[in-house]
């Protein structure tokens, strides 16, 4: 399969720089665009090996990312299928994830936490306004680019909500248990926007505890927030309300952060290169005919 991947990528003016990681159904590579002389991430899956549900989610991620143009959401630059192999070309964030940062740094400054928090709140507020819930917010799904900007990634479990109730009923647990809202874990009908709020509350401020303890506390509707995180801890407490209806919206959270922390939180993202901006504006997403059919049944 790798020989085919190399050949197909070369045809599209990409070359593999190095292998990054893999799971049961997909592999990730760092690739270089020969046309733009820039690095990107390539997610690769063989469509014939994928369960229908996973295949629909794979297409769904491409569809959703093509609709989201925000400085704190990882961009999609290309998408194609050849020889039953799917390729998604994504923005490369060279500084790893927030999980990597938490593991390698003994202490993260309050200023940096504030900056990343606001950037992700802004991204989530934007997504929710477009009717899209992420459904898998966690430290490893927040990347840091070369300009030290936080970027939300991995939209394979995202939901595009079109019904008036804003609720979904799904008995299958999808996502990461330590970050899941109680109503999701116990299989109740839930609002994915409110479950995103819970996951955000677990993620910010950074909570580093035994995962089984966190899971038990989530079921009981209680998570201890470390007091040293100040105003963000108070906001996180509100996000971790056992009653979803009592949790704030992402727009309200964004307002509260400005209200509590002041103008010092306002971050103006540094502009990317002209080439990157030009490519982003072109929205180079080549849709395969199967996308429309499968994305309709996707578990976003």
TrEMBL record:
**Where are the bilayer-spanning segments?**
none
Repressor listed as a keyword: no
Task: Please give the SUPFAM superfamilies that the UniProt record associates with this protein.
Answer: Protein kinase-like (PK-like)
- Gene3D superfamilies noted in UniProt: Transferase(Phosphotransferase) domain 1
Q: What are the GO MF terms of this UniProt record?
A: ATP binding; protein kinase activity
> By its UniProt entry, which InterPro entries does this protein fall under?
Kinase-like_dom_sf, Prot_kinase_dom, Ser/Thr_kinase_AS
Q: What is the official name of this protein in its record?
A: AGC family protein kinase
Organism of this sequence: Trichomonas vaginalis (strain ATCC PRA-98 / G3)
């Amino acid at each position: 399969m790798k020989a085919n991947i190399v050949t197909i990528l070369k045809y599209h003016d990409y070359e593999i720089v190095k292998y990054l990681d893999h799971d049961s159904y997909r592999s990730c590579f760092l690739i270089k665009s020969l046309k733009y002389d820039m690095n990107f991430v390539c997610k690769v899956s063989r469509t014939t090996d994928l369960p229908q549900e996973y295949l629909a989610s794979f297409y769904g991620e491409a569809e959703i990312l093509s609709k989201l143009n925000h400085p704190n959401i990882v961009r999609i630059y290309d998408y194609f299928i050849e020889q039953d192999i799917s390729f998604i070309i994504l923005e490369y964030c060279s500084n790893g994830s927030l999980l990597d940062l938490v593991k390698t740094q003994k202490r993260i400054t309050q200023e940096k936490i504030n900056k990343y928090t606001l950037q992700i709140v802004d991204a989530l507020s934007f997504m929710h306004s477009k009717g899209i819930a992420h459904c898998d917010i966690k430290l490893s799904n927040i990347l840091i680019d070369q300009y030290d900007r936080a970027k939300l990634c991995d939209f394979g479990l995202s939901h595009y909500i079109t019904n008036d109730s804003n609720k979904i009923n799904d008995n299958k647990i999808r996502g990461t248990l330590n970050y899941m809202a109680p109503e999701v874990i116990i299989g109740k009908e839930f609002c994915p926007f409110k479950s995103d709020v819970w996951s955000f509350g677990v993620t910010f401020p950074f909570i580093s505890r035994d995962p089984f303890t966190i899971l038990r506390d989530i079921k009981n509707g209680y998570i201890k927030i470390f007091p040293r995180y100040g105003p963000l801890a108070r906001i996180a407490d509100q996000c971790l309300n056992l009653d979803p209806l009592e949790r704030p919206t992402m727009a309200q959270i964004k307002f509260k952060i400005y209200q509590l922390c002041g103008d010092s939180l306002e971050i103006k993202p540094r502009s990317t290169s002209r080439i990157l901006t030009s490519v982003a504006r072109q929205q180079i997403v080549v849709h395969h005919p199967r996308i429309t059919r499968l994305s309709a049944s996707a578990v976003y």
